[in-house]
Specification:
Radius of gyration: 19 Å
Number of domains: 1
Number of strands: 0
Strand content: under 5%
Structural class: mainly alpha
Order of helices and strands: HHHHHHHHHH
Shape: globular
CATH architecture: Alpha/alpha barrel
CATH superfamily: Mitochondrial carrier domain
């Protein structure tokens, strides 16, 4: 099997494991970003939807992240082979930035659908992904797509670059016996670094996605600039960082697991190739 097939499998598998294990934290983050939505609390979900309600939207989220991160990792690894900057971190940054842009564009309707399903209560609007496809025009499912590409590309580049930088730094400075602990810590720290820098883009894209949710509770915006200006006027600068503490709580374990799995599966793939050659 080709390297690209393994890259697809590694990126997709790592994303499903990380997102499923941290799904309740992602739901909490979405609720804190969009408090105007009815029933945006864990107490409401537990009372009306039960424990499984904390994983609502996870199915379509897995449908989203598997192809997104499979495509993302495959493009990243293939582009990285052709990068010729002297500094390896420059190579990683450029490759992962390009990969992030293209992968987000490919799967964006799934991203919007996941947001719709996560923020509704008791299937009040849509009865799953196929129901959304039937009811919502395709162009509306791309609401906030430009903002998402502007946000995810640097987020992807910063997280992968900082993960490799932190890992190299710790290996050079400290003699850590357990490499798994190093990978998990560096993955989580890389996630915090990336989200701290790019968080306003994530909040704006969520708001733009919800324009087509079909609820009178959703504030109306005409575009990226209008959304940012309106939030600043009505909520202040802190409005652009609404839900950031919840994002930290969710991002550290998610990226710790995801980057750990990508790095570990990548090493297994390298060993497999070497074993085949000998």
């Amino acid at each position: 099997m080709s390297d690209s097939f393994w890259y697809l499998l590694i990126g997709g598998t790592a994303s499903i494991i990380s997102r499923t294990s941290t799904s309740p934290l992602e739901l909490y983050r979405l609720q804190r970003q969009n408090r105007f939505m009815p029933g945006s609390s864990f107490g409401h979900i537990l009372k009306h939807e039960g424990v499984l309600g904390f994983w609502k939207g996870n199915g379509v989220n897995c449908m989203r992240v598997f192809p997104q991160y499979a495509i993302n990792y495959t493009i990243y690894r293939n582009v990285l082979k052709h990068m010729e900057f002297e500094n390896k971190f420059h190579n990683i940054f450029v490759s992962s930035f390009l990969a992030g842009s293209l992968s987000m564009l490919c799967i964006y309707p799934l991203e919007t659908s996941r947001t719709f399903l996560s923020l509704q209560s008791n299937k009040s609007k849509y009865n799953g992904f196929l129901d959304i496809i039937r009811k919502v025009p395709l162009k509306n499912l791309y609401g906030g797509a430009m903002m998402s590409m502007m946000g995810f590309a640097p987020w992807n580049a910063i997280s992968l670059t900082s993960f490799n930088y932190y890992k190299d730094f710790l290996h050079k400075r400290y003699d850590i016996e357990n490499p798994n602990i190093t990978k998990l810590f560096c993955g989580g720290l890389a996630g915090l670094t990336a989200i701290s820098i790019t968080y306003p883009t994530d909040l704006i894209r969520r708001r733009l996605q919800l324009q087509h949710f079909g609820s009178s509770k959703v504030p109306r915006y005409t575009g990226i600039i209008n959304c940012a200006v309106t939030i600043l006027k009505t909520e202040g600068l802190k409005g652009l960082y609404r839900g950031l503490p919840a994002a930290y709580i969710k991002t550290f374990p998610t990226l710790a697991v995801q980057l750990y799995m990508i790095d570990t599966l990548g090493e297994m793939h390298k060993r497999y190739i070497v074993d085949k050659e000998y």
